[in-house]
Known about the structure:
alpha+beta; Helix Hairpins; D-amino Acid Aminotransferase, Chain A, domain 1; CATH 2.40.50.140; 7-stranded antiparallel beta sheet; 5-stranded mixed beta sheet; 24 helices; 37% helix; 19% strand; binds 5-amino-3-(furan-2-yl)-1H-1,2,4-triazole-1-carboxamide
Amino acid sequence: MPERGDIKARVVALREQLERWNHQYYVLDEPTVPDQDYDAALRELQKLETEHPELQDPSSPTQRVGAAPLSAFESVAHPMPMLSLDNAFSDEELGAFLQRVMDRLDVESLPELVAEPKLDGIAVSLIYRDGVLARAATRGDGTHGEDITLNVRTIGSVPLRLGGDACPDVVEIRGEIFMPRAGFEAFNEYARRNGEKPFVNPRNAAAGSLRQLDSQITARRPLEFCAYASGQHPESQWPKSHWEVLQLFASWGVPISRYAERLSSLEECVDYYQRLGDQRDSLSFDIDGIVYKVNDFEAQSKLGFVARAPRWSIARKFPAQEAVTKVTGVEFQVGRTGAITPVARLEPVFVGGVTVSNATLHNMDEVGRLELHDGDTVVVRRAGDVIPQVVSVIEERRLPDAALIAAPSACPVCASAVQRVAGEATLRCSGGLVCPAQLKAAVRHFASRRAMDIDGLGEKLVEQMVDTGLVRDVADLFRLEQRSLLTLERMGEKSATKLLAAIESSRRTTLARFIFALGIREVGEATALALATYFGSIEAIRAADLDSLLEVPDVGPVVAQHLRAFFSAQANQQVLERLLAAGVVWPAVSPAQNAQGPLEGQTWVVSGKLESQSRDEAEEALRALGARTSKSVSGKTSVLLAGPGAGSKLAKAESLGVEIVDEQEFLARLAKAGA
Ligand code: 9MJ
């Protein structure tokens, strides 16, 4: 039986170890131990605390899993009011604010400012007593908020104990709790699959997660914290500026924004706004503007407050990503695989920096969940380059006799029966390539840049070719003649000659591109590449049975079924024969069955925004070539693929001397590896 003192020492050591790992994982974004080691240490600590209740402690990492549910949140007073910010909606308004600052301070030149992204989450106050998180509260009305300590304890990036050498007896740290976009998407995907209502946006998701009386629910939500201000703090030995406070927080292990910068002119402020605005879409979290703050505390107190906003700070807002408009109708579009997508036609509305007149409704489940009626007033969201979406309906504004939007029973394009696979939300037209909509989409895909790359075969042209019956399947493209092309509208001799030359040169392709171009369900570029690398020939892929298809990295049972279904359909076999007879060729690929992928042994990290594909797709392509992929840069990383906005991962890779490649180089390497 170990001594009680030994047990206590072990408990303390485990807590320190777990908090250190937590900080490395959540704050520094640099995991240092495998999940199993973390879980094993946590379980050991949980066991010791259960066996020795006298050693339990509210700041123990075991508390991060949540506590017993509350019946209500308590109202708590803020030691100092929590302020909101005034807004500026143009450079002129920002300039006027800066001028007022100079006038009030009676100075000729602008004092130093700190600029930081304005996080779109929930403002909170964290009070630490003797370095231990003692209370967390929402902003509420600014003077009183709700005590959400148990919920906030579950958030991994909130230190339960401040690190560093000296921390004050009492200090209040203020900041934002938010849900990163990836966590929001994953959470909503999970909610949709389980028939729960998805959240409208990451901000609502963060608010909803913090509002849980059961902190074990909050513990399962992907929330993060970022500090941006102090509240109550000791008078002596306190920093003289906002910037220094941020550095002090960081030295205690509290996450701060890595985008904060010190600026000293209107030009620099405008430039910062533009730079962050350009990065806005590729950030991993939502921001709705830039906050500028006078850095020096003495200047701040000279400036003081008006109403509930400080005179030393302003929020310059970005264009709103949500707007309210009316649905004028719902159209059902038929995609390449027959999937029928409901699209809302909207009264044009300016949102996310552009005028939007259509928004996706995803599928009929989503329409059902929204209970969308004709003419409904809705909230539309357009974040980044994501397709605009209808996120919610304002029921109070529904017209009295509006009709509920119903699913079509026949394909709106070819009138074939509509099918719905059990367990799938998608409606599908059963017409296959008899359906002009599916055929058009198949031809467009076949000709697209990353497939057969037929230059000049645009959407309008494909439309005409299918409507006039010139093209009945993709193989017909290789039988087009100058004479028949000239019958199409707006097609002159010159364009026809050019198009025929483009079709001619597209015959020489790669096996991977050809497989991708066939448009087999769920066979994207990465899977096509994996199939080409593994089998080496179209004959081998056609002939492969389910078992051998499942041997291919990247191919699971669903994809294997789609492949078998595609290659066993007689119509597809005929098209394939005709394509090969038309002289589609590619350089021989030596089959890699049983051999290693060309990137075997390498670990890649993908970061920042890519032009040609999403990060997930790039990772998939790398894995198909045998590489390992990881989310964080470490000594084990072989190559970092860095797009714009790669940020801290780029800095880390540079400091570790990890090879860094841009997207162009990445595509060149994929091509060399047989893509
Ligand atoms: C946000 N939301 O990111 C402040 N904020 O400072 C930042 N909010 C703030 N600062 C004083 N970065 C009051 C609010």
